[in-house]
Amino acid sequence: MIHTDILIIGAGPVGLFTVFEAGLVKLRCHLVDSLGQPGGQLTEIYPKKPIYDIPGYPSVFAGDLVDNLMEQISPFKPGFTLGERAEKLEKVEDKLYKVTTSKGTELFAPVVAIAGGLGSFEPRKPPIENIAEFEDKGVDYIIKDPEKYRDKKVLIAGGGDSALDWSIFLADVAQEVTLVHRRTSFRGALDSVEKVMDLAQNGKINLITNAQAIGLSGNGTLQEIIIEEDGKEAYPFKADHFIPLFGLAPKLGPLADWGLEIEDNAIKVNTFDYSTNLPGVYAIGDINTYPGKLKLILCGFHEGTLMIQSAFKYIYPDQKLSFKYTTVAGVNGF
């Protein structure tokens, strides 16, 4: 049985940074995550993926960002329950919730902050009949270690940020990088699109648009990808690796049964403080939705910061919150 001030569901980057903000106002935090280590998707899916939109870091590897966040929150000594999924939410008395995990652990707190990222997730796979035969034998849906592709021929499929960012990064790692997209326009950041176009123009990557992969072949491991391009007959393309990056299919899992207001598989919140329809329950990061929502880590940091201010007032309505900048006294001075 664990008691804390704020129970954070999800130990991804947004959940971790929220511990820091809570520590500044002397609120204790405990984090629950179904994964076996902190960091969420950054650790589990792409620890070596560079991230470009964290303030103060022109580029930082996802895994390094998690390490820095863990160091940042270490003075506040948060608790962790890892490898267990939050299954059940119960209100046991006024301003006290109980969350029970998949392994029966009971955790109590007046405030619950859901920072579960996309919830549980699985990669979206292209409709290629024999793709399962080559999974882990040339087909990867996520990139954990880019060194795996050094001096190899890589074909990436997709038109979002992940496909663009990895095409840019692997251009300096792989022997040959080819990006295939079904359209001529991309969904990713404009800066990333421009970088890909420049790399293609300079011959550093191959760019094939209005095309898609429709088949795979090889003897035990991937050797060729069948490409169907508009106006042309389908043709084989030699590659060592095929990496379709079509995003993740999110699932709320048990959270969907907690009585929260759900819209488009996300939790609706009030943008004043990112509170849900349940008193004392908040949702921050990619798992929430509101008009103008952007699913960015830095936006989640902002949401967690405002949420903590509201959570303090919810827990201690009679106390005055004295907010200070960290430059006034430093972390240890709060």
Question: What is the fold's blueprint, element by element?
Answer:
Elements: E1 2-3, E2 6-9, H1 13-24, E3 29-33, H2 41-44, E4 50-51, E5 60-61, H3 62-73, E6 79-82, E7 86-93, E8 96-101, E9 106-109, E10 111-114, E11 120-123, E12 153-157, H4 161-170, E13 176-181, H5 190-201, E14 206-209, E15 211-217, E16 224-229, E17 235-238, E18 241-244, E19 248-251, E20 262-263, E21 266-268, E22 281-283, E23 288-289, H6 297-315, H7 326-329
Parallel strand pairs: 1-9, 2-3, 2-10, 3-6, 10-22, 12-13, 12-18, 13-14, 21-23
Antiparallel strand pairs: 4-5, 7-8, 8-9, 11-19, 15-16, 16-17, 20-21
Helix pairs in contact: 1-3, 1-6, 4-5
Entry summary:
The chain has helices at residues 13-24, 41-44, 62-73, 161-170, 190-201, 297-315, 326-329; strands at residues 2-3, 6-9, 29-33, 50-51, 60-61, 79-82, 86-93, 96-101, 106-109, 111-114, 120-123, 153-157, 176-181, 206-209, 211-217, 224-229, 235-238, 241-244, 248-251, 262-263, 266-268, 281-283, 288-289.
Outline the structure in words:
The chain has 2 domains: 2-121 and 248-333, FAD/NAD(P)-binding domain (3-Layer(bba) Sandwich), CATH 3.50.50.60; 125-244, FAD/NAD(P)-binding domain. The protein has helices at residues 13-24, 41-44, 62-73, 161-170, 190-201, 297-315, 326-329, and strands at 2-3, 6-9, 29-33, 50-51, 60-61, 79-82, 86-93, 96-101, 106-109, 111-114, 120-123, 153-157, 176-181, 206-209, 211-217, 224-229, 235-238, 241-244, 248-251, 262-263, 266-268, 281-283, 288-289. 22% of the residues lie in helices and 28% in strands. Helix 4 (161-170) packs across helix 5. The protein has 334 residues and is an alpha/beta fold. The protein is built from 7 helices and 23 strands. The model has no long low-confidence stretch (mean pLDDT 91). The strands form 7 sheets. Strands 6-3-2-10-22 form a 5-stranded parallel sheet, with helices on one face. Helix 5 links the parallel strand 13 and strand 14.
